[in-house]
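Let us walk through a complete example step by step. Step one is to write down the protein sequence. Step two is to encode the small molecule, pyridoxal-5'-phosphate, as a SMILES string so that its atoms and bonds are unambiguous. Step three, shown after the inputs, is the structure prediction itself.
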Amino acid sequence: MSQRPETKAIRIQTAKTDQKEHSTPLFLTSSFTYDSAEEMAEAFADDSLDVNIYSRFSNPTVDEFINKMTALEGAEDGIATGTGMAAIFSTFMTFLSKGDHIISASAVFGSTHTILTKYLPKWGIDFSYFNMNKPESITALIKPNTKMLYVETPSNPGLDIIDIEFVSAICRKHNILFVVDNCFATPAVQQPIKDGADLVLHSATKFIDGQGRVLGGVVVGKKDLINKLYLFVRNTGPSLSPFNAWVLTKSLETLFIRMDHHAVSAMQIAKQLQGHAKINSVKYPFLESHPQYAIAKKQMSNGGGIVTFDLKGGIESGRIFLNALGMISMTNNLGDSRTIASHPASTTHSKLTEEERLEVGITPGLIRISIGLEHIVDIMSDILQALDRC
Ligand SMILES: Cc1ncc(COP(=O)(O)O)c(C=O)c1O
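Step three: the predicted structure of the complex.
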């Protein structure tokens, strides 16, 4: 009988070595050896041979991490990269050429926005943005040279959600590669391939690590697509380090219970903050007030670990709130066992104009909380005492 995803996240493992270790070994080696000159020559002669040569190409620890992510996302194959941005950039570079066009949701992570707007045009690759809240506007943006459609759902930091099935039907009809950044949900909560995505990618730095230790990225999808990506990564070098892969594969063992716990606390905190005197509005995918609540319920098994709220009093209130926090960490990462607060308007998105920020749902008083695994009472009391000071 096929194992359940929770079990696969724990039990997929590199074949036992002669040492009969129980926990997975770490193959911290840059290269691999051969028994003969002929074997070595053969390894180099054929790119498709399943043999370890050099850890920029493949490594057993990295493969274990890839195999788990591939199984959890319901994909055929995957590749791993040093960061989430390397996964995104490698995907763009592999599948887009000079003269091509990409359609992307405008609500995407800041560095993804920079690649789309500053780098791709430099290489003759054109882009169009659409508003996540208006998926019906996608069709009008399609051109004969449109090769890829890119979304993040839920988006960072606006928590906008798009119907993956709806977008995948458009992409299929127009022969466009559909790429989903699944970083906020993780495969424990949402599997976009099941809903029709061609490629799913992650910043593994976030909930997949889950403890704020290492950077990493991964892309999964159909074998033929991943093979193209593999050749790009193998030759250009954004590969994942075996050490980071070891940390990430161990982290996956607890992904499901962590995501459940993050989501239970996040849901309760979001509910309790609704109607607070210092807050205009609270956003969380599984709150009925979320504009895409019905879609979230359809494609996600829980609401994830991120809650946002809009403070009354704008930018200044945001600063006061952050300064008033006691336990909750002030840092730009997310998806950690420690609860983290950030104020996008005065930090990560301060370089944008107010109009640009509002377009992607970043109001002056928007606070993003990545709910950690501490006791919910301690998280909540820190948020409430900081709100009192605003
Ligand atoms: C949704 C999303 N995608 C991609 C990235 C980039 O990942 P990395 O920092 O691992 O390069 C991030 C980082 O915050 C993110 O939040």
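Step four is interpretation. The radius of gyration is 21 Å.
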